[in-house]
Specification:
Helix content: 25-40%
Number of strands: 13
Order of helices and strands: EHHHEEEEHEHEHHEHHEEEHEHEH
Shape: elongated
Number of helices: 12
Strand content: 25-35%
Number of domains: 2
CATH architecture of the largest domain: 3-Layer(aba) Sandwich
Length: 355
């Protein structure tokens, strides 16, 4: 086994990294957030001081992780190595989840030695990682968990839409059915239609963003699309991922024959048989009595996911009520920092743990 810590020069290393990453992901289980579609999106603009952690066994690459180095001013106490993030608040507004080194199947034991090599280079910032990586980090050095959030999901494998509904609470089932009936009460039919090409995907994304921003700013929040880097990243991701079926932009509407009425838009990511509910925009202003556009859009999308053979509909991290109401299961994701025990940060993490 060989584990290397490699500085990257995009002019020289971008194409070889793209090839190596895509070769490994074909032999790996992982999330959309570990795929080259996500990692490679605007990579040369976003990662300004990139370092690669690479694990090989018998000359075959079986583990890859991309870090960006930030800080280092003055005494260097703010220096950090961020896994699959940049350290720039605008660029990181895209919010990575289900992160971690990309490992070939059957090589989970490499997590600990890879972390051990990386932490020798400096303090690590690891965002949106699972329990296995958290446990290995705690075994490697001084680990501070800054946040833990549930990630609710719907287990779909072997289930029909009726099975999913039956697994929900009676109140949730009531509100889902009432909203569906209210939207179709005028003789219309609820339809979920995915963008057919990149141009339509961009149009759906713009319409989603307008509804999203209207809803969030009305409540006194900036909204996800207020950050310019967020918009730039996702327009690029739509261009990369929609033709490959990794991005699904869906318009949910009421079809009334000669016209249709928008209920909302969903921006979902799809990696293999898992659908990630990433972002949304709903027409709350146009909703009538008993009409819940968010519930109805997700109802339609989960039905479509089941019909397409998806094994999971993942709401990603968050405590929003609709996520817990519509889900059947959940995991925990963790945001943490890792340092060597006898460094300044390591001592501070230890003291905070004692307290």
């Amino acid at each position: 086994m060989q584990i290397e810590w490699i500085p990257l020069d995009w002019a020289r290393d971008h194409a070889p990294l793209a090839d190596a990453w895509q070769t490994l992901e074909a032999a790996a289980d992982g999330s959309i957030f570990q795929s080259w579609s996500w990692i490679g999106c605007r990579i040369t603009d976003r990662f300004t001081d990139p370092w690669l952690l690479r694990a090989s066994v018998d000359g075959r690459v079986v583990g890859l992780a991309l870090f960006n180095q930030t800080g280092g001013r003055g005494l260097g106490l703010d220096r950090a190595l961020r896994l699959h993030e940049t350290g720039d608040a605008g660029e990181d507004s895209v919010f990575v989840e289900y992160s971690g080194p990309l490992l070939a199947r059957g090589h989970a034991e490499l997590l600990r030695p890879m972390l051990a090599v990386a932490v020798r280079q400096g303090r690590l910032v690891l965002s949106g990682v699972g329990g296995a990586l958290r446990d290995e980090a705690m075994a490697v050095g001084a680990c501070r968990v800054t946040r833990t959030r549930p990630a609710p999901f719907v287990a779909l494998e072997g289930r029909s839409e009726a099975d999913w509904l039956a697994a929900l609470g009676s109140s949730t089932r009531y509100h889902l059915r009432r909203s569906w009936r209210a939207y179709e009460a005028g003789g219309g039919r609820i339809v979920a239609r995915q963008a057919a090409d990149v141009a339509e995907g961009w149009a759906f994304l713009d319409a989603l963003a307008a509804l999203h921003q209207a809803s969030w700013t009305a409540r006194g929040y900036p909204g996800a699309f207020a950050e310019p880097a967020f918009r730039v990243f996702h327009r690029a991701l739509v261009e990369r991922g929609l033709p490959r079926g990794e991005v699904e932009l869906t318009l949910v509407s009421v079809d009334q024959g000669d016209r249709s009425r928008v209920i909302g838009y969903l921006y979902n990511l799809r990696w293999r048989d898992r659908v990630y509910s990433y972002q949304s925009g709903f027409d709350y202003a146009g909703a009538g009595p008993h009409q819940s556009p968010g519930l109805t859009c997700h109802h339609a999308a989960i039905g479509a996911a089941i019909a397409s053979g998806a094994r999971c509909y993942d709401f990603l991290a968050g405590e929003a009520r609709y996520k817990t109401s519509l889900s059947t299961d959940a995991v925990e994701l963790h945001w943490l920092e890792l340092a060597r025990p006898l460094t300044w940060h390591g001592v501070m993490y230890w003291l905070r743990g004692v307290r």
